[in-house]
Amino acid sequence: MQKKPTEAAAALAEMKRVFGDRFYVELQRHGLSSETLAEGGLVEWAYANDTPLVATNDVYYAKAAQAKSHDALLCISDGAFTGQEDRRRVTGEHWFKSAEAMRELFADLPEACDNTIQIARRCAFLVKTHKPILPRFDTGAGRSEDDELAHQAREGLKARLEKNQAYAPEEDYWSRLEWEVGIIQQMGFPGYFLIVADFIKWAKLHDIPVGPGRGSGAGSLVAWSLTITDLDPLRFGLLFERFLNPERVSMPDFDIDFCQERREEVIDYVQDHYGKDRVAQIITFGTLQARAVLRDVGRVLQMPLGQVDRLAKMVPANPANPVTLAQAIDLEPRLREARDAEPAVKALLETALELEGLYRNASTHAAGIVIGDRPLTELVPLYQDPRSTIPASQFNMKWVEPAGLVKFDFLGLKTLTVLDRAKSYLERRGAAQDWGLLPLDDPKTYELMASGQTVGVFQLESQGMRDTLRKMRCGSIEEITALISLYRPGPMEMIDTYIDRKFGRAEVDYLHPSLKEVLTETYGVIIYQEQVMKIAQILAGYSLGEADLLRRAMGKKKKEEMDFQRLRFVKGASEKSVPEAQSGSIFDLVAKFAGYGFNKSHAAAYALISFQTGWLKANHPVEFFAASMSLDLSNTDKLAVFYQDCRRFEVPVLAPDINRSSADFDVSWKDGQGSVLYALGAIRNVGLEAMKHVIEVRETGGPFSDIFDFLERVDPRAVNKRALEGLARAGAFDSIHPNRRQLFEQADVLIAYCQSVAAERASSQVSLFGADQAAAARPRLKSMEPWAGPDKLDQELYAVGFYLSGHPLEELTPALKRKRVTFVAEAQGLAEAGHEAFQMAGVVRRRQERASARTGEKFAFVTFSDPTGEFECLFPPEQLRRCREVLEVGTSVLVKVRAKAADGEVRFFGDDASRMDVLLDDAQIGLRVILSAQSADAEALKARLDRARAQGKGGEVWLQATLGGRTEVEIKLPGRYRLDAALRGALKSAPGVVMLEDA
């Protein structure tokens, strides 16, 4: 209106012509000069053209006081700082203004405020919901969907019964199948079953691993017949009504697990089959969580990174039950102290509290896919995630179904990928397995579970689960199913009852003689929702459809519905001659358990995967570890746990080797002994794709003969300086160049050479000696001593994430023994024999602080590493306060512990902790350095010893040499020395040193 008033007026006139009386001229007053300049012309045009005005305010936050927090949010979104001049800003007028505030702001134009009501009335509209809209399934044979479902189900069951053992008379299978087919047809869902069966059959045909089932769908015999699931519902006593209830019409919902590495292939197939414009993911919104919002706000306020990191770490990290920032401030006195002492921290916390929980970004649901019978733009708005090739609905999970779209869950399950990877390893040595045909009575599998050695076993690897396995000693797939169902908040309190009844330490109570068949499997404990349904059917005459409604009512605990159901239950039971007092008592008991009863179909399906991974670990541990570690390639903490488990199972883990290792973890067999080959791609800073390139080069041209051969053949765009340093630190070049330090510290020179060779190769320049020779001159590397013991291990720790070739405390073992230190391998046996107090030692690997739910005080789980393994120690609040400064990651510590042994498991509790370097001084008696007189370098020795000279405490050093024949000379050096691992490693690498002895 200011610069081109004629064109603006023409545009307004055109819109007025198109929209008629639905066209308004909007006025806003946020304090912007552009608004002020344009307003006069807009008002003049509106009056001249009989067009109503409307006053609005762009609302970005609720209250005026939140302007600063919104400004910080803008900076988080834009990657800017609040103190930055050249950035996006808005005025402080974008709050949700009341009618009074708006009328005061537009006092000169009251009609502009009046018209907002008129527009609101015109916009009053209720969006219509749709019934499920599914694409029509192409039967390809001219059959209807009803007939096609019946045909495929019958053929499928015939094939299943030919291949699998029947656990009931065959007529039971056939009658159940026909009944289910009839219900599915009656409810109008044959198309849904056929669509799901189609993409699962496609996946299996293309060797994409598919899970045996998930959720209540495993209760359907039709699903088993169509190969949607791999669990015989009659074998496990699963109920169809738990999945699809004819007395409560709702969409069936199959959740399908696929191998996580190939899940996208199945989605691509669905897109190709139904049309790319008819398939979409579902949007989801990421929110600002407590720790993340502190880091984000701290960054935009330009607070010191270390300070913000310390504050963020004071917020407990518990993904399963996230702690809000307000809760963290209440629980953590250090947060309150920092807030009260520093205005900057107070401002940080105030802003973070206002932003916590707001949407931070849009993303897509991990599993949900919708398929329409028409282009989805006709049903829902779409959003294109820049990280995906598939659009997403702008309606989230809650709203896509009312819009008529049917959700299909394509989940990626890592364990299926582990099993598939292990299968390929086994095939290489002629031991291929069909996971669906494993003997479910395998003794070795149940022995493994009874021992609690189930790290990496699906659903059974947490510490609490392993403790329970030792007590329960599962002996069947049914007992694994029960454990998975019981080990949850709520029913967990019944675990001891279940175990005591199993082993005859408590009497089994079946509540009523007629319920013995339902409750025998679980020793009278009501664990499953299906049991609740069967109890209602047997005792009170419910149909299974009605019983499913009862189960839902008990889960929701609505008083009116529960009162109605109690009357119905007692009345039905009385008709079966059950006394009212007894049936009422049973109803109350069942209602209590039903609140946390578990879906048996889901538990049984997952128990089967638990058994499969347990069988793999018990029977083929090498392949199990290689496959499991490959799927946690970038998680060094998890790799360290697997490495310790490998040691327990006596499975060697071979160090990374540029000429033997693969990009992923691999398996090596020699003379009947299997080993895990450490993955090059698991080394920090190298990158999996870069290592795949290295392996491709090696497989094409043969093993690398030396470091220069390596540099002349690889692409420097893949193997950069950081990758070369990582490989050197980890010892991956030891077989072709054992001096790790030389490669690491001269990585610039080496990469420059690699780049020059690559440039020459690209320009087709070759040397006079032939195309296989590099034209560039190989650089001469500076001579330097290799890293000594501790330095070498520190570098390896950085690159690998744990100690692989040795341990920093190995050199200190004699001194530690003089301090009566017990290593964990020995301590566990002693604790089981009744010993309780120990002096232990270790390098702090991890420290996890948590807050007590009862008192709010902090306690910590600290993981230590010693030369024989790792151990976890619980430090209660008082001990943690006393020892917190000592228990820093990477510190070598002496720990006083109490040990408790129960059910085959030893727990350690920390009483005190001290830095090892201080307490070892008085344990250092002396060190004898045995030399070869011919090759000893006196200057090198003196330099190393001078660096370790101690004031006061320390050990004495003797030099011993053979001068000729058998004449030995021994010299005691003046002064005392810190005989730590650093000195020992340095002396070992000195010229002429034959060996070291404790004196």
From TrEMBL:
Compartments (UniProt record): Cytoplasm
Q: What is its EC number?
A: 2.7.7.7
* Biological-process GO terms, alphabetical: DNA replication
Which positions fall inside the DNA polymerase III alpha subunit finger domain? 415-576
Chief subcellular location equals: cytoplasm
GO annotation, cellular component aspect? cytoplasm
Task: Name a GO molecular-function annotation.
Answer: 3'-5' exonuclease activity
Alphabetic keyword roster: DNA replication, DNA-directed DNA polymerase, Nucleotidyltransferase, Transferase
Known catalysed reaction(s)?
DNA(n) + a 2'-deoxyribonucleoside 5'-triphosphate = DNA(n+1) + diphosphate
Identify the residues that the record assigns to the Bacterial DNA polymerase III alpha subunit NTPase domain, covering every copy: 148-412
Does the keyword Repressor belong to this entry? no
- Gene3D superfamilies, alphabetized: 1.10.150.870, Bacterial DNA polymerase III alpha subunit, thumb domain, Metal-dependent hydrolases
Residue stretches making up the DNA polymerase helix-hairpin-helix motif domain: 651-743
Q: Identify the domain of life.
A: Bacteria
Q: Name one Pfam family in it.
A: DNA_pol3_alpha
**OB domain spans which residues?**
840-906
- The entry's protein name is DNA-directed DNA polymerase
Source gene? dnaE1_2
